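Example record

One chain of 310 residues, shown exactly as stored in the release files.
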Amino acid sequence: MSRIGIASLKQLFHSKSGSRSLIVVLIFLIFGIGVSILGIRAQVAEQPVMPVTGEIKSDADIAPLVFKAAYFSLDRELNNSVIGWVPNDLMISPTSWFDNKKNLQRGIIFATRGVINVYTTHFARSGSGEEINKHLLKAQTSSFPYAEDVWMFASSESRYKEGIQSINSYLEDVENGKAVFNVKTDDLYTLIDTLESLIEMPQSRLKTGVDSHFEADDAIYFAKGVCLVVRDVLNTVTLAYPELMNRGGEQNVAVALETLDTIASFNPLYVFAGGNKNGDSMLPNQVQALASKLDITANRLRDIKLALDK
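Predicted structure tokens for this chain:
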């Protein structure tokens, strides 16, 4: 900067009007940063469970509820999130540094893939030898397995939206009698087993794979993303199939859903990994706290599964 420019700034700063202007600018700057932080936090704050409205009378009512529960959280991130899909944002984009949102979305697509695999191979066929609906097959094998960090040509967002549309096309086929929706107790057992496995993946990472505060939030928000999908699916399935609650135990289902609600509401100002190797044992250990919640959920799902197997 030239001497003239520096002198002008000094003169502006020492003048009363200049001081007021600088104060105003600083106030707006601080306000803008504060609003931005609140906005970012709101993007990973508590998310409501998928609403289930209307009376459930037949498979025609159940099919759209069950399948939409699998992609409800994903659809929200794609279409109702202010900052959109973050994992594929370039480093030059400010949103690429929103690591909590990024890992939340990674957890959501991870769990969505697992649930759709079960639905496609078990809920949408009368038997193992029956051909899979072409729309579901496309969603399962092409759309949802697509990497979450692709930003050009066929972007991650476009593939995931394509997958949701494919599921809706399958549901139209079910409504018109052109596709199968057939759920047996064995299929429900397989679904609960899958939900348990989905929980165990982030649970294991929280227990053994977090070495510092900086890694803690990545693991925690990934786990939260997984739990959002598991909660939507478990809540919807138990409403659609009351016998699951009766056979699996009403208390098991209630505790599992209550614990998933607690995880869904987790959104601290800062994530601590106190006592985890490089963490500080004097600070709270939110990693282990969340891991214990996942333990409770996995154990309750295991009890439901074992009850269904009797």
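Notes: The first helix runs from residue 3 to 14.
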